[in-house]
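Q: Is it fine to ask for two folds in a single conversation?
A: Yes, each is treated on its own. Send the first.
Q: Here.
A: Result:
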Amino acid sequence: MKLYYKPGACSLASHIVLREIGEDFELESVDTNTQKTETGADFTQINPKGYVPVLRLDGGQVLTEGVAVLQYIADQHPEAGLAPKPGTLERARLQEHLNFVSSELHKAFGPFFSSSASDEEKQAAKGNVRRKMDHFESIFSDGRKYLLGGEFSVSDAYFFVVASWAEPTGIGLDKWPNVAAFSARVAGREKVQDAMRAEGLLN
């Protein structure tokens, strides 16, 4: 398999999960501004949508959209315990978290990564991000370690990555101590550190 990624982008979640399952895979970085990969390939020929992550399977098929990629990887390696069994309430809870991160929190950060966004739009985005983060702070208020309870899942990988954008955007995590503790917990995982180091995010 090959993962097309952009350092620190949402594709980091898929990268983390690939390392968590111990699967052999290749990495190829993408400049989403020029739409060129590190080998000079035209990324639009790989994913016409123009963004990461993209997982190229061993048979040559291409899978896009982070939520789909994360669940596919987990389902191919159920022994890793990164996603509950399909058809269960626990799996529906996983999808609930994944979808909220994707459609609400991830989207809320959008203006910070848009060259055309005005200062007013970025300021409004801060308020929007804060409201979404309040939701996660409430989830962790019962003392759970991870979104589904005591075990790390693909939803944690995705939330960890998106929550990490709070620091470079000037929002920070000080207002949400439970989320900050969660982020520190995930950041301490060996495979998470391996993925971040490979993307140049850690020394």
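Q: Second one now.
A: Result:
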Amino acid sequence: MKRYLDISKLLKKNSFFLFGPRGAGKSYLIRHTLLKQSNSIDYIDLLNSRLFIQLQNDPSQLQNLVSNKTVVIDEVQRIPEILNEVHRLIEERQIKFLLTGSSARKLRRNNTNLLAGRAYRAELLPLAWKELKSAKSYLR
């Protein structure tokens, strides 16, 4: 189903946080649009236990995982400290990040570096009326 939020267009301009409730389709949208369109995007999934433990123990290891100019970090709220490294990589290497998560509140509560002025915020909500309308014709 086509979503109206164009994440590739967002990333042409700046880094972004993409927030939304669990199950809204953030990860699915990234895997089935952004990652299929380009091979030059690094994808870091913090639901991967091995990767999670590695970055939780040493967030500076992020720089070793980044080889492209665009990076997606999925479930960023799991390691709020990684945002300091994201900040550094934006400044030093001009990398654009798409940072997904379900809980902006959790990040704010922990006084996390929210990359003021370096990353905008977008939200992916559950299906919008227009999306449901187009899905209805799709399902027929």
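Q: Anything structural to flag on that second result?
A: Two points. The chain is about 45% helix and 20% strand. The beta strands are 15-19, 41-45, 70-74, 96-101, 119-123.
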